[in-house]
Amino acid sequence: MRVRLGALVLAWTVGQLLLSAPGWAQGKGVGGRPLSALSRQTLDFGTLFAGTATKVSRFDALRAGQFELRGAKGSEVRVDLGLPAALSGPRGARVPLQFTAGDGGFARDGVIATAAPFDPRAALVTTLSGNGRLYLFLGGTATPAARQTAGAYTGTVTVTIAYTGI
Predict the structure, then answer these.
(1) Residue 33 banded pLDDT, cuts 50, 70, 90
(2) How far is CA 76 from CA 35, 51, 143, in A?
(3) Residue 83's pLDDT band (boundaries 50, 70, 90)?
(4) Under CATH, what is the fold of the domain 2-163?
(5) What phi and psi values does residue 114 have, to the nearest 5 degrees?
(6) CA dihedral defined by 6, 122, 130, 26, rounded to 10 degrees?
(7) How far is residue 36 from each of residues 10, 77, 113, measured CA to CA in Å?
(8) Where do the domains of the chain lie?
(9) Full-model pTM
(10) Cα distances (Å, whole numbers) of residue 22 to 2, 13, 39, 144, 155
């Protein structure tokens, strides 16, 4: 975890399996107001088949990546996602990833089915809920090559959250 200029950065693993247990990252925002993030669920592409793209919807409650962000009630925040271009695997093999405008979702109540869309490639500026929470959901597409090397593949999504004003 890095905390810098009132921002909270949390690395998150995505890949073939749910590779990491949920965990909290905490930091202080401007004026000492706390920020924290919980990786609730990693983005899970499941078993990939050579030459066949696999898309995970942001609405998929079992496979979409999920984060819970916490801070000062009703505060405006900026959220940036550092998205990997590919998953890395055995002997340097890579599986290209694609994230599009509809692959991100956010909700103040944590309900994935009613999450508002956002483009995960761009900054999201929004407000935390009345209880100081914001939930993020992330889908994407993995496109293995026709002769993809078999094995476990992983990648890292970096989430940065910061208060915008104050």
Answers:
(1) confident
(2) 12, 43, 36
(3) very high
(4) Immunoglobulin-like (2.60.40)
(5) -115, 15
(6) -40
(7) 9, 12, 24
(8) 2-163
(9) 0.83
(10) 18, 10, 5, 27, 16
